[in-house]
């Protein structure tokens, strides 16, 4: 009956509280006439970040079908340990054909409605889906504490999943939603995913290792033709994900329907049952077409040969932006190694100290601390905060140092929490973090306090403001490093020298299609540069995907000439 289908935004929860419903069935629409099959499909947890409490997910299929349909309440309950199930209550209103879920926090009600008659899902706040347990083993917010924010009015979102040929069913008093929709909303948005290999569900965090991917993808489906219904769900899952959650649609002048970005030939190839053909289409669309470093393919489908890989670094498979980035990176790496032979945390020349690190890292607790809870002596080698703390201990012993250069020329980004904490070494003020959500159209300016001396006190003045701070940037200063330069320049706490940065303004969102193809995208959470424009009387949240221009340009042949940089900085300070 009805239905066109959805793959959109429903994070439907459940569990605590008993369901309520209207007993008047006269206007109710249901799908009880359908002949669906039922299976208990094993659920295998590969994440160390979450302890799942269940080992299977109850799943329905159309007769001879291959697309999993799952009761949204059961889906949430099955992921107990990842989702904070106990906080959620729900009501099914059968007479009006919808399910409503709610949870409460700080006198605010987060609410989701799913309508099975119109295949739409409404959420009053995108943060509805952030009802997850705390990550185990790694404290990504260590040394930084959220203080406050200013934000524009949040907008509700309605996902018309029927436009993507996904059908929401009301079947035997259960609200069944296709797996691709549930996965995007509940899992992908929270850095996790469910891979269905035709035999089992595999739950994992982030981007899986090659070994884990091989283990999860191994099944009876390997080296086989992909069924038509899986092709349809995979294609429309891709389009749905890109329409709602790809943060660079406007930046790249892609209109609302990502399908229009796909050529007729590529769309035809995506429909092929042959994995060689649809893999090629994925490569053309994602790697060659979008050509940006936060969006790329990871592993091919479960229908591929198990050992198949995406050769995303082959010059034939990448666009100009990818090629330019890695050509530049290799040049800088060679220049650095030829100059210094080895990497050490701090170098000195004249009145200037030079700090260099190539990513922003937050190490797991077992890497940072011994069995007695004491900080390990080599913690600084694996964690950016302790790297900075160690570097400052070294610098403080040099009485003549006036300037510090943070060399981010080959820093490709990393964890934002680590980046926040690193910025705190430059200022005693709360750091200002501007962002824009391309889905809800919400502008935010968040304020964080940083504990830069690791004493647990967020109010003491423990930053190293006695030094003049500089940030050395290049084409390869990307992602979190790009944001570090942006925030520091925006706050006026450092001078940026070198080249224009390489951009990368969106948080990364790991995704998976029903055929098992794994990839990542620039998400709808975009990081920005904020200023107030007197002429227009408006707050401006400027995109930084195009990079941050330096305050002073320096040719890259001088990047690692410390004597040159010391003299250059001395002239700036005059």
What does this structure look like?
The chain is an alpha+beta fold. Helices cover 24% and strands 26% of the residues. The chain has twelve helices and 25 strands. The protein has helices at 72-78, 179-187, 210-217, 228-245, 264-270, 275-290, 320-340, 365-368, 384-396, 416-423, 480-491, 562-573; strands at 36-45, 56-62, 69-71, 89-93, 98-105, 108-115, 120-123, 144-151, 157-160, 169-171, 174-178, 192-196, 201-205, 296-299, 346-349, 352-356, 403-407, 431-437, 442-450, 468-473, 495-498, 506-512, 518-533, 538-543, 552-553. The strands form five sheets. Strands 8, 14, 18, 19, 22, 23 and 24 form a seven-stranded antiparallel sheet that branches. The protein has a six-stranded mixed sheet with strand order 15-16-17-20-21-25. Strands 4-5-6-7-9 form a five-stranded antiparallel sheet, with no helix packed on it. Helix 5 packs across helix 6 and helix 10 packs parallel to helix 11 (480-491). Residues 1-26 have low confidence and may be disordered.
Share of residues in helices? 10-25%
The major sheet is characterized as: 7 strands, antiparallel
End-to-end CA span? 77 Å
Spans of at least 5 consecutive residues with low confidence: 1-26
Q: Keywords for this structure?
A:
574 residues; alpha+beta; 7-stranded antiparallel β-sheet; 6-stranded mixed β-sheet; 25 strands; 24% helix; disordered N terminus
């Amino acid at each position: 009956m009805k239905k066109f289908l959805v793959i959109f935004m429903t994070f439907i929860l459940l569990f605590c509280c008993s369901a309520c419903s209207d007993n008047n069935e006269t206007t109710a629409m249901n799908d009880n006439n359908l002949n669906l099959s039922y299976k208990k499909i094993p659920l295998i947890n590969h994440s160390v970040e979450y302890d799942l409490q269940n080992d299977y997910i109850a799943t329905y299929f159309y007769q001879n079908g291959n697309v999993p349909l799952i009761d949204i309440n059961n889906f949430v309950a099955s992921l107990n340990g990842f989702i904070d199930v106990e906080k959620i209550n729900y009501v099914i209103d059968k007479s009006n054909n919808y399910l409503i879920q709610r949870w409460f926090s700080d006198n605010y009600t987060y609410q989701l409605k799913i309508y099975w008659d119109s295949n739409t899902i409404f959420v009053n706040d995108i943060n509805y889906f952030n009802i997850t347990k705390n990550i185990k083993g790694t404290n990504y917010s260590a040394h930084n504490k959220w203080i406050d924010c200013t934000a524009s009015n949040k907008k509700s979102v309605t996902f018309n999943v029927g436009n993507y040929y996904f059908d929401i069913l009301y079947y035997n008093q259960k609200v069944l939603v296709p797996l691709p929709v549930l996965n995007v909303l509940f899992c992908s948005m929270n850095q996790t995913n469910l891979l269905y290999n035709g035999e089992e569900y595999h739950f994992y965090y982030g981007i899986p290792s090659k070994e884990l991917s091989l283990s999860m993808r191994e099944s009876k489906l390997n080296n086989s033709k992909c069924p038509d219904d899986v092709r349809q769900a995979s294609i429309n899952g891709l389009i749905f994900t890109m329409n709602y959650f790809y943060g660079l649609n406007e930046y790249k002048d892609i209109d609302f329907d990502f399908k229009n970005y796909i050529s007729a030939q590529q769309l035809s190839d995506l429909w092929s049952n042959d994995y060689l053909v649809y893999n090629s289409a994925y490569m053309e669309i994602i790697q060659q077409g979008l050509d940006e470093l936060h969006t790329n393919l990871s592993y091919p489908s479960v229908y591929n040969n198990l050992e198949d890989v995406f050769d995303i670094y082959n010059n034939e498979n990448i666009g100009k932006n990818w090629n330019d980035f890695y050509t530049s990176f290799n040049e800088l790496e060679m220049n650095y190694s030829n100059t210094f032979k080895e990497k050490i945390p701090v170098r000195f020349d004249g009145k200037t100290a030079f700090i260099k690190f190539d990513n922003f890292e937050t190490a797991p607790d077992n890497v940072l601390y011994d069995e007695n809870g004491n900080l390990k002596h080599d913690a600084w080698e694996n964690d950016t905060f302790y790297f900075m703390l160690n570097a400052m201990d070294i610098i403080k012993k040099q009485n003549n140092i006036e300037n510090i250069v943070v060399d981010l020329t080959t820093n490709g980004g990393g964890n934002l929490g680590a980046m926040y904490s690193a910025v705190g070494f430059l200022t005693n003020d709360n750091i200002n973090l501007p962002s824009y959500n391309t889905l809800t159209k919400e502008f935010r300016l968040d304020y964080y306090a940083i504990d830069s001396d690791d004493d647990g006190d967020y109010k003491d003045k423990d930053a190293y403001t006695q030094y003049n701070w500089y940030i050395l940037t290049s084409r390869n200063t990307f992602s979190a490093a790009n944001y570090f330069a942006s925030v520091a320049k925006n706050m006026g706490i450092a001078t940026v020298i070198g080249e224009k940065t390489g951009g990368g303004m969106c948080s990364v969102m790991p995704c998976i299609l029903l055929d098992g193809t794994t990839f990542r995208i620039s998400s709808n959470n975009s990081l920005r540069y904020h200023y107030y424009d007197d002429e227009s009387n408006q707050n401006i949240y400027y995109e930084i995907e195009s990079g941050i221009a330096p305050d002073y340009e320096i040719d890259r042949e001088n990047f690692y000439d410390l004597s040159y940089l010391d003299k250059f900085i001395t002239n700036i300070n005059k």
